Structures are given as structure tokens and as C-alpha cells.
Amino acid sequence: MDSCDSRARAYKNGKTFDECKKIAESLNPDFKRQIVKNGKVLWTEILEQVEYDELIYKLTLKFLRRDGYDIGNHKLPKVKAFNH
Fold first, then answer.
1. Which of 24, 46, 53, 69 can bridge 64 by disulfide, Cβ–Cβ 3.0-4.6 Å?
2. pTM to 2 decimal places
């Protein structure tokens, strides 16, 4: 029986994991500007901007959380700055 290899979909266009990390890091300044301007960025907006690449999408959220943003959850699918 054939099984799906999740990496085949996640590593889109043959990119290595390190290349995907660099792409996610390079997109984050734009997302941060959107958060400052609009107060939030929706998960769907991030997914569209990363062209539905699952790995880059997840890394983008991870790096935004690392940088101090509230990345929400399945009930609140948006990224915003923490209210201090």
C-alpha cells in the first residue's frame, strides 16, 4: 500500500529545511509590519503569502512566537502583539 510522505508536501520545490527556515525568517519583517499597521495578521493571510507551504507556514508562526508575538490558537487563528 502506498503511503503519503508528509515531507514531500512540506519541503516544497525541493528546498532543504535550512532554506525553508531562511525563507520564513525573511518573511517575518513583513508580517510584523502588518501586525503594527492592522493590529493583527490572520493565519490564512500567512498561509496565502507562503503559497500554502506547510513547513514555511509553521516556521513563520514559530519565529513570530519566538519574537514575542501571540500566535493565537485554533479558536483565535491570528497573530497579534501581546498586550502588556
1. 69
2. 0.82
